[in-house]
């Protein structure tokens, strides 16, 4: 591929998932060429002018945002003309894309009406996830409290189970977006968006009642879910999958990134 996009990537083995895994996929496909650099940030283009900020927050003193000309921000998007909404990524883009490209279960084949599988590992997550008892509104609810190792499912089991549900609850992560948001879109499970989740600050924002339904509290969920007919769900399922393909699949996320870089050069 002529004129490949150049990515200057940081080398952080302990964080080799999410966007760092996606960079691996882009390179394997032949979309980009890469060069390792010191630090904790990724840059794009030959002059390192485009910051690719994939971290969940911008206020951590150990991950400070460096000076840049234009920044693409995946989670928190600062309110500044140099900061552009981008896309976000699954915890394991490779695993998600494999199942997203498979023959996903239909409406009738999905035995779980609503699902949430997640964990609380810090106080920021606890504030957004323990503010209500969300288990009251969700049929299949699992919330691990504690260390990263204390989790019920493998990554493959988690994605497979997610694809067996018609609707999936989204709660804020360490930032206002969560990897689960993208995983739901990829498997065509219609998101139930709770307060504190950011679905607007993407380059392509989610549209209510097209990509997701919104609730304010657990008591709202049953009525909202019941109001969606089979045909409506099928349309929303399709729109979720198309959004994933355009924005967060390996091909879609690369094309979007390249388009934004060309636009703001």
Per-chain topology:
Elements: E1 5-10, H1 18-29, E2 32-37, E3 42-44, E4 50-53, E5 70-73, E6 83-85, H2 93-100, E7 112-120, H3 123-129, E8 140-145, H4 155-162, E9 165-170, H5 179-187, E10 190-193, E11 213-214, H6 221-226, H7 230-247, H8 250-264
Q: How would you sum up this structure, described in words?
A:
Helix 5 (179-187) crosses helix 7 and helix 7 (230-247) crosses helix 8 (250-264). The protein has helices at 18-29, 93-100, 123-129, 155-162, 179-187, 221-226, 230-247, 250-264, and strands spanning 5-10, 32-37, 42-44, 50-53, 70-73, 83-85, 112-120, 140-145, 165-170, 190-193, 213-214. Helix 3 links the parallel strand 7 (112-120) and strand 8 (140-145). The two termini are 21 Å apart. The protein has eight helices and eleven strands. By secondary structure, the protein is an alpha/beta fold. The model has no long low-confidence stretch (mean pLDDT 92). The strands form two sheets. A six-stranded mixed beta sheet has the order 2-1-3-4-5-6, with helices on one face.
């Amino acid at each position: 591929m002529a004129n490949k996009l150049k990515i200057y990537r940081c080398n952080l083995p302990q964080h080799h998932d999410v966007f760092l895994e996606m960079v691996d996929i882009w390179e394997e496909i032949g979309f980009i060429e890469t060069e390792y650099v010191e630090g904790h940030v990724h840059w794009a283009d030959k002059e390192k002018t485009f910051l690719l900020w994939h971290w969940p927050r911008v206020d951590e003193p150990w991950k400070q945002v460096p000076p840049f000309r234009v920044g693409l921000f995946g989670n928190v998007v600062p309110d500044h003309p140099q900061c552009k909404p981008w896309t976000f990524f699954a915890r394991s883009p490779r695993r998600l894309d494999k199942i997203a490209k498979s023959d996903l279960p239909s409406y009738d084949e999905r035995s779980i009406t609503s699902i949430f599988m997640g964990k609380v590992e810090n106080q920021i997550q606890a504030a957004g996830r323990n503010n209500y008892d969300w288990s009251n509104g969700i049929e299949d609810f699992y919330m691990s409290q504690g260390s990263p190792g204390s989790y019920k499912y493998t990554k493959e089991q988690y994605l497979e189970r997610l694809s067996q549900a018609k609707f999936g609850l989204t709660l804020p992560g360490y930032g206002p977006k969560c990897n689960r948001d993208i995983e739901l879109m990829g498997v065509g499970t219609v998101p139930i968006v709770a307060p504190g989740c950011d679905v607007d600050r993407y380059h392509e924002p989610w549209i209510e009642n097209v990509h997701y339904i919104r609730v304010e509290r657990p008591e709202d969920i049953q009525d909202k879910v019941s109001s969606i007919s089979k045909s409506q769900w099928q349309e929303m399922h399709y729109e979720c999958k198309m959004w994933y393909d355009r924005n967060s699949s390996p091909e879609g996320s690369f094309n979007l990134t390249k388009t934004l870089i060309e636009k703001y050069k």
